[in-house]
Specification:
It is built from 12 helices and 31 strands. The protein is α+β, with helices and mostly antiparallel strands. The chain folds into 4 domains: 41-151, Sandwich (Immunoglobulin-like); 154-267, Immunoglobulins (Immunoglobulin-like); 273-450, no CATH class; 455-540, Immunoglobulin-like (Sandwich). The longest helix has 38 residues, at 539-576. It is rod-shaped, with a radius of gyration of 47 Å. Residues 13-38, 198-204, 546-553 and 577-586 have low confidence and may be disordered.
Length: 586
């Protein structure tokens, strides 16, 4: 009986061991979602990082203790260190790659590099601990399908065609044009490579910074091209690498573990606008200085802005010159940014809207000259800034509008140039602003056409002695025959028509001295009022002026006469002085 009981007990033990425990092992192995874990470690993730280099990403959760100890073990800085194996392929943990997950402080992410290419049959990831020469299996993880065939197929590698702009400040946006960026933005990241120097050790190694893009487009149905956008990372490490002008870092796009080729991205300091702007201002000042050297006159504003026919400042010249200086300085500014900071070897483009702007400015200048209509300003007066908005001593609304919109548009353009990303090129002027400037220019030219036809630029003589009635000649434009001159309190005076630019008349005898207002009345059209047109002066003032001129002339003649007498006396002395030969004879 004891023997039967013993046999029954053995059968139960064997059945229990080969049935229940075996069934649990089979269920655990067959279910890939249930990894083989140990109390201290739990493998939670495995994925492809860089398929070209057989680099993979792994995540471990530590149940007991802090993650700092786990990081030291992964980086081989503790007596106990860890290693992994993918199926039959051994892998090494990349040093200094372990770091705590930003979303879960209990998880550590790190990278491993396989000794050889893995295959679809390598389904199991195993974690080993090595301490005092003894190796122990700590945890296992069943790898789901990686679809390696898709990664190995041709034309699957991402391709970068160009980036715009080719650099920027930290926090700036960059657009990448290319192909094979995929459709899942979570499987795409941007990698930057930089050199890390080890102080005191005399060597450096390559490190990488990884960021995720914030936008990816769908492939174009015909060209298959895509657009990817990312933000240059805000990194103290990169900030320390930036020199005076820039630091050039190799970057690439990695999609599902497939990397693209490297392309250089220039990261420039935040103060680049101030530096480039200061340098461009210096270049413009140097440009203006060279103009002064050429014309041999450093105050040459009058040579540029003055209208020769009226000796006043021209609004059309002011507008054309102002926009010329602004656009020259702006182009220098953009060119300096591209040449010194980006150093991309690209000549900046000039926007079509700016070409239209220059056409409007210089079209107005040429149109004003072609009309041949001079301003109603006296040539004997000093030029003033009021000439830009006034005509004949009155504010001209068409001039005021063009002047105001020119100044406002220049200020807006300079502000936009400084605040926008100049690395993308010169900012465009909106079509509405161009249209507004064009309308103002048209109003200015229309005012010259439709305004008063007569303008007076010179009166000869302008000062008349009291009691005299000389012949006065008016020089200007738009004169017609049968034009009459009127002085208040005197009869209408008929004029002598000389040509379209000049007329003459006999001045009446005025009964008092002072400034006289003159009214010019053509047979058709509006009259022209000239305040202080002629000045009546006393005869004594004219005589004093004449006497002063005569006295000055006599004084000069007297000085020449004295000089002649001195020369004569000197010549006589020379003639009277005996020579050496005459002395010897005597």
């Amino acid at each position: 009986m004891f023997t039967r009981f013993k046999i029954l007990l053995i059968i139960l033990v064997v059945s229990f061991g080969s049935g229940i425990w075996a069934q649990e092992d089979i269920e655990s192995f067959d279910n890939p979602d249930v990894p083989h874990t140990e109390p201290d470690y739990n493998l939670t993730y495995f994925g492809i990082k860089d398929f070209s280099k057989d680099i993979y990403e792994v995540s471990i959760a530590k149940k007991r203790g802090d993650t700092k100890t786990l990081i030291d073990e992964l980086n081989q800085k503790a007596p106990k260190h860890l290693r992994l194996q993918i199926g039959e392929v051994r892998a090494d943990i990349i040093k200094e790659s372990a770091e705590t997950d930003i979303n879960n402080s209990n998880i550590v992410n790190f990278k491993i590099m396989a000794y050889e290419m893995i295959s679809e049959k390598d389904k199991e990831l195993r974690l080993f601990s090595v301490e005092n020469g003894h190796e122990k299996l700590e945890s296992t993880y069943i790898i789901k399908s990686l679809n390696l065939d898709r990664h190995r197929q041709p034309d699957a590698q991402p391709l970068i065609e160009k980036i715009e702009p080719k650099g920027g400040v930290m926090g700036g946006s960059v657009t990448v044009h290319g192909r094979n960026f995929g459709a899942d933005i979570d499987q795409v990241y941007i990698e930057f490579i930089y050199k890390k120097d080890h102080e005191g050790k005399g060597h450096s190694d390559s490190k990488d910074i990884e960021i995720r893009p914030f936008y990816i487009s769908t492939p174009d149905p015909q060209t298959k091209n895509q657009i990817l956008k990312f933000t240059i990372p805000l990194s103290q490490t990169i900030d320390n690498l930036i020199g005076i002008f820039r630091v050039s870092l190799p970057m690439r796009v990695v999609v599902n573990g497939r990397p693209s080729d490297y392309i250089a991205l220039s990261i420039i300091p935040h103060s680049y606008k101030l530096r480039a702007g200061s340098l461009s201002v210096f270049v413009v000042l140097l440009f203006l200085f060279l103009i002064g050297v050429i014309v041999k006159k450093y105050n040459y504003v009058n040579l540029i802005l003055m209208d020769k026919t009226t000796q006043t400042y021209s609004l059309s010249k002011f507008q054309a010159f102002s926009w010329t200086i602004v656009l020259v300085g702006s182009y220098f500014y953009v060119a300096i940014c591209h040449a010194l900071f980006l150093r991309n070897g690209i000549i900046p483009d000039f926007n079509p809207s700016l070409l239209v702007l220059m056409g409007v400015s210089y079209g107005g200048l040429l149109g004003a000259n072609a009309l041949g209509k001079t301003k109603n300003e006296r040539i004997d007066t000093e030029p003033e800034l009021s000439n830009l908005i006034c005509d004949g001593g009155m504010i001209d609304l068409s001039r005021l509008q063009l002047f105001c919109f020119t100044i406002i548009s220049i200020l807006i353009y300079l502000y936009t140039l400084y605040t926008t990303n100049v690395l993308d090129g010169l900012p465009d002027l909106p079509p509405t602003l161009l249209g507004l400037l064009g309308v103002s220019q048209g109003g200015y030219l229309g005012g010259k056409v439709m305004g008063g036809k007569i303008s007076i630029n010179q009166i000869t003589p302008e000062k008349i002695v009291f009691g005299k009635t000389p012949r006065v000649v008016l020089v200007g434009s738009g004169f017609v025959a049968e034009t009459k001159v009127i002085f208040e309190g005197y009869d209408t005076i008929k004029t002598e028509y000389l040509n379209p630019t000049s007329i003459a008349f006999i001045i009446p005898e005025f009964d008092e001295i002072g400034d006289k207002e003159m009214i010019l009345a053509p047979p058709n059209g509006n009259t022209l009022v000239l305040p202080k047109a002629i000045q009546i002066i006393e005869q004594e003032q004219d005589e004093r002026k004449t006497h002063s001129i005569v006295a000055s002339t006599e004084e000069i003649q007297s000085e020449f006469a004295d000089a002649d007498e001195i020369d004569v006396e000197a010549e006589e002395k020379i003639n009277k002085k005996p020579t050496k030969s005459s002395k010897k004879k005597s």
